[in-house]
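Fig. S4 source data, part A: sequence.
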Amino acid sequence: MKHPILHLYTMGESVTAFSSTRQGGYSEGRYGEFNINRYCGDNENNIRQNKTLLCDLLGIRDEHLIMPHQVHETEVVMVDDNFLQQSADVRQQQLEGVDALMTNIPGVCIGVSTADCIPVLLFDPIKRIAVAIHAGWRGTTKRIVEKSVDAMIAAYGCSPQDVVAQIGPGIHIESFEVGDEVYEAFHKEGFLMESISMKYPARDGSSIEKWHINLPECNRQQLLSCGIPYSQITVSEICTYQQHERFFSARRLGINSGRIFTGIYMSCDAAARIV
């Protein structure tokens, strides 16, 4: 029997945080094996079967697995009782153009999709608030992480000093070659370029050196600027480009390929269920 293989994180008691790997599902080819993203060209039947596998593993209903349609912007949506009471069509409309979700409802798994972009999970163990953020390079320059922290503070009264953060698998600096226009976008937005960028030999074999950006570090710095303690921020060592056989990488596989789902789920017995 197929079984999704999850990469788990430790973020607190009675909370399960994870990133899906490519193993344990029904998808095939560049979507194989485990993909639940509907916006990358995968077979709908395979996606549906994979979602069922994950929901069964988590012990939740299908409608309690919440994933937005991301557009590299900074919209944050609260998943509350009112959201859950809407029809499937209305909920889908509310998830259009959204790159971060937050909730205080146990039994609901919120998450984001990535394939080189940076997923960020936040958890406030005092207020019992979970947040999932999609931070590609565009969202990072627009400071989506800072805006998501601001949103959880405004909505739930969270204190940054209580928040635990997990930066998940994404492309790392050695593999993230960018054009000068991307470098300038970060510079224009006030990032400390000496701490987030470096030049490496170009991948095309020429003698030219190209800029590389450290996306995980960009987002770690945003978390620190929000007041989240250094000791409460964990950065995954997994580079999706380098480990594309285990995790999806759009730069390796093309945009018509699967996506990693990075989710967070609050429940008294969730961790025991999937370990």
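Fig. S4 source data, part B ends here. The CA atoms of residues 3 and 24 lie 5 Å apart.
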